[in-house]
Structures are given as structure tokens and as C-alpha cells.
Specification:
It is a single chain. The protein is α/β, with parallel strands linked by helices. It has one domain (5-222): P-loop containing nucleotide triphosphate hydrolases (Rossmann fold, 3-Layer(aba) Sandwich). 48% of the residues lie in helices and 16% in strands. It is built from 10 helices and 8 strands. The strands form 2 sheets. A 5-stranded parallel β-sheet has the order 2-6-1-7-8. Strands 3-4-5 form a 3-stranded antiparallel β-sheet, with helices on one face. Bound molecules: cytidine-5'-monophosphate. Cytidine-5'-monophosphate (C5P) binds at residues 12, 34-35, 38-39, 98-99, 102, 128-131, 180, 184. Cytidine-5'-monophosphate binds next to helix 2, helix 5 and helix 9. It catalyses: dCMP + ATP = dCDP + ADP; CMP + ATP = CDP + ADP. Residues 6-220 form the Cytidylate kinase domain. GO terms for molecular function: ATP binding; CMP kinase activity; dCMP kinase activity. This is Cytidylate kinase. Belongs to the cytidylate kinase family. Type 1 subfamily.
Length: 223
């Protein structure tokens, strides 16, 4: 039988990766965090002062970036040219720049190519913004996740605080989420949108266990 792909898309910080990891673990699939790839590329662009509006600079940079996942424990440990960057890509400098970098056509083309390669021969759960629409339009199971923006900001704020970030306020987080949602849904290249066949999952009032139960039910119905 052909390999299986579960696609999870949705707005920023609505728990896509939490659900994706739990689902992957239950199903014995590999979890792939596509957002981490855009974040790692963004980190490279920041460090190397790559001008995203200069097509030659973007081409050159993309030719010098190697991303790899180490998915022990279904966490998304990603390396950028061999360096572990999983923590650094979650910090604000990357969060405030990533939507601009990810809107770039050349960047998207390269990431989509790599993502499709990863899902070619393995059973995977991949989360992101365009997985059900562009990367794996034929995925047999697709979810589109959403949640109240204030709840999302509070969740992400707590996460940053627990990691020792004392400079970012709840308002900063709220604004960053609003900005990314706007940029991600209005960009020209594969904007964030629900695939016609994606199951909507609003988790504003759902626990993680309830979401997992719901998603597992859906997966078992579809497969
Ligand atoms: O999923 P995460 O919030 O880490 O993604 C960070 C950013 O990467 C998003 O705001 C979006 O701009 C970009 N992204 C994307 N397509 C994906 C995954 C992420 O454009 N498939």
C-alpha cells in the first residue's frame, strides 16, 4: 500500500504541532514541522543579511542551506548546516521576519520540493500553512485548525515565558500572531487557506486529549 500523509494546516499558534506530534506518535508516523524549515531559512537570512528582494542573493543562499530533521521523540529538532537551531528559531527575531521570507516564491518552491521528497516513501504527519493545498493536495486526511486569537496569544506567551523570555509582552505576541495570520492569508504564493476537503478543528475550548481523540476518529474513518 502507498504511504500515508496526514496534513494539518491553520493559523499561527493554534496547537498544530502539539496535535501533529501526538497524532504521529499514536499512528507510528513521522512528524514533520514545515514551519521549522521556513524558520531555519529565515534564521540563515538574518544571520547572513540576505536581502529577500534580491533574487540572485536568494538563489545563492538557498544553495548554501542544508536542513535536516532529527525526529527522536516526535519533537522537531532541526539542524541548519549541521547546527542545532530548534530553540533559536522560536525566538522573536525569527518570528517577526519569517512571514516575509516565507512569502518569497523561490523559498517556497525549494521548501515544497524538499517536503514532497520527505513524504514520498514514508507515513507522515506534516503541519504548516499549505500542506493540504499545495504540498500534498492528495493527502487522504486533512485538518484545518483554528482557535480564538486571544487564547492563541496567551498560549504562545506562556510558552515563551517558560523558556525564559522576559522581554516579550503578551501584546507583542498578540500583534505578531495577527501580523503573521494577515501576511500568511494574503500573500500571493500559496496563501494559507482551507482545502475544500479539510476537516475544521476549532480547539478554543478543547483539551489536547479531546483534540487527539477527534483527530484519531477522523483518521480512522478516512483510512
Ligand atoms: O508553523 P510556524 O508558526 O512555526 O510557521 C512560521 C511561519 O512560517 C508562518 O507564519 C508562515 O509564514 C511560514 N510557513 C509557511 N508555510 C508552511 C509553514 C510555515 O509559509 N507550510
Amino acid at each position: 500500500r502507498k504511504n500515508l500523509v496526514v496534513a494539518i494546516d491553520g493559523y499561527s499558534s493554534c496547537g498544530k504541532s502539539t496535535l501533529a506530534k501526538a497524532l504521529a506518535k499514536k499512528l507510528g508516523f513521522i512528524y514533520i514541522d514545515s514551519g521549522a524549515m521556513y524558520r531555519a531559512v529565515t534564521l540563515y537570512f538574518i544571520r547572513n543579511h540576505v536581502n529577500v528582494n534580491d533574487p540572485e542573493a536568494v538563489d545563492y543562499a538557498l544553495g548554501h542551506i542544508e536542513l535536516n530533521f532529527h525526529s527522536q521523540d516526535y519533537q522537531s529538532h532541526i539542524t541548519l548546516n549541521g547546527e542545532e537551531v530548534s530553540e533559536e528559531i522560536r525566538q522573536m527575531p525569527v518570528s517577526t521576519t519569517v512571514s516575509e521570507v516565507s512569502a518569497n516564491k523561490k523559498v517556497r518552491r525549494e521548501m515544497v520540493k524538499q517536503q514532497q521528497r520527505m513524504g514520498k516513501s514514508k507515513n507522515i504527519v506534516m503541519d504548516g500553512r499549505d500542506i493540504g493545498t499545495t504540498v500534498f493536495p492528495d493527502a487522504p486526511v486533512k485538518f484545518f485548525m483554528t482557535a480564538d486569537p486571544k487564547i492563541r496569544a496567551e498560549r504562545r506567551f506562556k510558552e515563551l515565558q517558560s523558556k525564559g523570555d522576559t522581554t516579550t509582552s503578551l501584546e507583542d505576541v498578540f500583534e505578531n500572531l495577527a501580523h503573521r495570520d494577515y501576511a500568511d492569508t494574503t500573500r500571493k504564493e500559496s496563501p494559507l487557506t482551507r482545502a475544500d476537503d479539510a476537516i475544521i478543528l476549532d480547539n478554543t475550548d478543547l483539551t489536547e486529549a479531546e483534540q487527539l481523540d477527534f483527530a484519531l476518529d477522523m483518521v480512522h474513518q478516512q483510512l
